[in-house]
Design goal:
mainly alpha; 3 helices
């Protein structure tokens, strides 16, 4: 579904659109440009939020990794059928 809206643009922007768009194609060009812009902004926002979350959880994640490393060290000899005193 399409809806008609009124948008005010600088003359230079409108001239640029008219250079790209064929007759009666302004809406298509503006639609495509806005969709690209929205995807770029969405990706940028997602990257920023992921980075902030990773930083916020970094200490927790480091602690978990250290705990798993210790557990893996204990489990590895058992999985190979040897014990720490066999080494």
């Amino acid at each position: 579904m399409y809806r008609r809206i009124n948008v005010s643009l600088p003359d230079s922007t409108l001239q640029g659109i008219d250079r790209l768009a064929g007759k009666g194609e302004r809406s298509r060009v503006i639609d495509e440009a806005l969709k690209r812009y929205l995807r770029a902004v969405t990706k940028k926002t997602l990257r920023r939020r992921m980075k902030e979350g990773a930083i916020r959880r970094s200490e927790r994640d480091r602690n978990l990794a250290e705990e798993w490393f210790l557990l893996e060290g204990e489990a590895w000899p058992k999985a190979n059928g040897s014990s720490a005193k066999d080494r």
